[in-house]
Amino acid sequence: MNSKCLGKKYGPFFYKAAFEKMREFSLAVKDDNSIFAERSLSASAPYEEAIAHPLFCACFNQKPLSVAVRDPELGIDLAKLLHGEQEFEFHKPVTDGMELLTEGEIAKIWRKDRYNFMQIESVTRDKCGDKVVTGRYTVLMVGW
Questions:
Q1: pLDDT for the residue 4
Q2: Which pTM was predicted?
Q3: CA distance 12 to 17
Q4: How far apart are CA 22 and CA 129, in angstroms?
Q5: Contacts of 113 (CB under 8 A, 6+ apart)
Q6: Cβ atoms of 109 and 76 closer than 8 Å
Q7: pLDDT tens for each residue of 77-116
Q8: Fewest beta carbons less than 10 Å away: which of 48, 54, 59, 60?
Q9: Please, how many CA atoms are within 13 Å of residue 8, restricted to the half-sphere of its CB?
Q10: What is the three-class DSSP state of 41?
Q11: Is the pLDDT of residue 144 over 90?
């Protein structure tokens, strides 16, 4: 993993949230809270609009990571790449029709024993520029 790529940025990536995508996600993760699957219930929630399951953000917030791991300058061997961990910091809910822009950057690169680690931090904002979600993704690659 090329440590000279520390701070490299990826994006912006555009995504438009849509109720049907949000509903399908909640069903796919088997969340039985119908607020995410039924427009009438979701719209009666405190937000007055259909809202997405919190983890729906993985559909758009991880785009910088997926682009970064294929960046030839970084030198990652995908056959040796493992998902380490991920975390989300939620700033506001994703709602039906929300237009989102995600940008990410390589926040950390380090080596421990025979492993190379990289952390990408991704920030998704709405069309007003307000933060919606911040994601941190850590991957590791076995190095010899």
A1: 93
A2: 0.87
A3: 16
A4: 22
A5: none
A6: no
A7: 899 999 999 999 999 999 889 999 999 999 999 999 889 9
A8: 48
A9: 19
A10: helix
A11: no
Pick from 100, 109, 27, 97: nearest CA to 61? 100
The CB density around residue 127, as the number of other CB atoms within 10 Å, is 10
Q: Identify whether the C-beta of residue 26 lies closer than 8 Å to the C-beta of residue 92.
A: no
Cα 1 to Cα 74: distance, rounded to the nearest angstrom: 6
Could you tell me the two tokens for 9?
Answer: 């940025």
d(CA 9, CA 7): 6
Identify the structural domains of the chain with CATH numbers, from first to last: 3-17+60-142 (3.10.129.10)
